[in-house]
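Q: How would the structure tokens look for this protein?
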Amino acid sequence: MFGIIIGLVLLMYLAYRGMSIIWVAPLAAIVVAITGGLDIIEAYREAYMGGFVGFAKTWFPVFMLGAIFGKIMDDSGAARAVANWVTGIIGTKRAILAVVLGCAVLTYGGISLFVVVFAMYPLALALFREANISRKLIPGAIALGSFTFTMTAIPGTPQIQNLIPIDYYGTTPTAAPIMGVAGALVMFVGGMLWLTYREKQLTAAGEVFVEVKDKVETIDASTLPNPFLSLLPLVTVIVLLNFLNQDIVIALVGGIVIALLLNLNRIKNIVETVNAGASGSVLAIINTSAAVGFGAVVRAVPGFEALTNLVMGIEGNPLISQAVAVNVLAGATGSASGGMGIALEALGDRFVQLSATSGIPLEAFHRVASLSSGGLDTLPHNGAVLTLLAVTAMTHKDSYKDIFIVGCAIPVLSVVVAIMLASVGLI
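A: Here is the predicted structure in token form.
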């Protein structure tokens, strides 16, 4: 068990230092294997690669199709058209709210949060410039709209963090709607209150908008496609997934087809766009699979039983045990999907048994797992956090405090609220 802890700490530290989890995860797994008395080569070939390949086999189509969908929406200008429409309705007087809701519409429609960051940043910059709000708050606003309630809480979201529990619990994307909506409200309202408070605080201190050093692409709304037509691919994904009960693969293919048909004349080279999307998905699936492979080695060592007993021994509602396990592992790997994949692969069967003995529906376990994955994952070494700060030309010192509050602290609170609702039968 001590070796497992050392491996987790090593994984977190090296990832925080900016080292790729592709080689960091197997290195940390070797530490776990040695201290657990396993043969290194066998542990790598069987346990590590077994977990790695198993996750990739199940989820690669979703990662690939999601990335292609996002790339088509990005290259065609459709994602930006939707975001521009949403922010235009809300206006510059509510610049922070406009950015949050713009991101939310895109992510709930199935677009990868990485694509959303690139699509929203120029719009956020223009809104914050006109409202004279410090650029330090742009990362926090984008994080709130992309990394939180639309990723894990709102029932029916096609984001991977809401889909992984389905394989383990036999649930649906709309599992536990009351818990999900309540969690979403906690994150949205809490996040908006924090960002509004920070805006007033920074303005009072004389920190207002300062131009970026590097020129950022300006948006000519007249060149963008029709926002209502641009919404159709997003709506297609949601309808196919949640109302026609189609697999996420079918839903994403439907969204891709509609997006292509609507934007044939707006994409310069369709093959290049699809190639770029497919290529971009490879790194994402390998990163997550590497984290899951590490978890498979952890599961193979004798100390895992002690760790399991420690987590499962938490008194009270078994949803608390699941929340702790998913949060800790998501934080260690810096990945919401990776952390949840490790936790459910290792403990999913136990939670199914606990559902049967405790009377708590599996839908509640699904929603708590999803919500928990979006908590401690947003630590400084998280890949999405690093990308967000790089795109917005901000540093951890400038903006991580706000990202942490809206993307980590408040989401953890939302898990507490969801568990309380489940404990009184409001699922």
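The CA atoms of residues 70 and 111 lie 5 Å apart.

The radius of gyration is 21 Å.

Upvote if useful.
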